[in-house]
Each structure stands twice: as structure tokens, then as C-alpha cells.
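hiii, so i know i said id send this last week but things got crazy w the move. better late than never?? heres the sequnce for the chain we talked about at the cafe, plus the structure i predicted for it. fair warning i was half asleep when i ran it
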Amino acid sequence: MKTIILTEQNSVVSQYLSELRDIVIQKDSMRFRKNMARIASVASVEISKTLNYEQKDVQTPLGIAKCNVIADKLVIASILRAGLTLHNGILEVFDHAESGFVAAYRKYGSDNKFLIQMEYASHPKLEGKVLIIGDCMVATGASLLLAYNKLIEDGEPLHTHIIAPIVSQAALAYLSKQLPHKNVTIWIGAVDEELTNKAYIVPGLGDAGDLAYGSKL
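okay and structure toks below
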């Protein structure tokens, strides 16, 4: 698995992340969603530089222009529900992509330990296509790995890109061992070092789904 951290060099992603983490700015859920989408769009532009292109003759009002267009078929698969914020940002860049969705969540027991529950996965065929997975917060990596394995059950994508604004150091180490080394790239906003005994990322930003869409039952 190849790892690319978007904030290793100064860019506007650092500004977006600072606002996502800010407890005051977080009160504006529309801005929270927008900043998630912006990070996804920046990562998507970087992903576009890795894709295959082909030349196409385009008819203009005055002649023929030779243009390079994306040759790869893309599928965007987001992990619900927080991942919807990233999905919109990726679609802003790759507006011809197909879409898929995975519902996965933590189910806690009385001892505060949890299992990852997957309710469903809905997606088009992935064989020979480029898969882009969006996951806002990767704490342990368990739900992301479960989603990845579920998505590729029916066919191997040409390459898988993962967009994750915040990832814990523990999750990054786990995924580096579990995911394929050759055809998976993860695009990260920031890596946070601490993980609590309940597997919450510190400093993190809180519950991305709640901040984006409101509290759940």
C-alpha cells in the first residue's frame, strides 16, 4: 500500500483540516460538509494525475482540437454515512464516475468493546476499473478493510485509491500489513498518533457523521 500525506507540504488542505477540527467552526454543519468535500476534491485532482489517458478529437466551432481524456473507468464507493461528504467532493472532479456505497458501523457491547457490522454494499462491477473509496475517519482500519474486501468480492479493480482526511497511526500500520502493496494507494489529510481505549482518534475531530448530518439515535 502506497501512502501519500497531503499535508506533508503546505497546501490549502491544511486550512480545511484546521476548520474541520475547530470546535467553534464545527457548529456550522454546512461548512463541515463543504470542507470534507474540498479535501476529497483536492485528493481527486492528485489521483487524476495517476490515471491512464487517451487522445480524442473534439469538434470545436472553428476546428478539431486534440484533447487528452481519462481512459480509465472509475467507481466511487463511500462508507456511509459520513463518507457521503467525500463522495460529493470526488464527484465534483470525476463527474463521469459510477457510484457505490457501503454501510458499516461499530456495534458496541456492554464492555465498550465493539464489532464492525456491515449491513450492505451496493456497487457496479469493479473488474478492470479504478476504485476510489472515501472514509472520513480511519481509527482502527477494521471497517475500511471490511468494506474493501466486500467491494472486491466480485472482481479485482485495476487500482484502488482511498481518500481519508484523518487516519490514526495504529490504523495506518494495520492497513499497511493487510492491504495489497501493489495496487492500493491511500491519500491522507493527517495522521494522528493517539487512539483512546474506545478507539477514538485524538486529537481527531469528533464524530464526522454527527457533525455533518446531525446526531443519530
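btw Helices lie at 12-21, 29-48, 83-93, 142-151, 169-178, 208-213. thought thatd interest u
miss u guys!!
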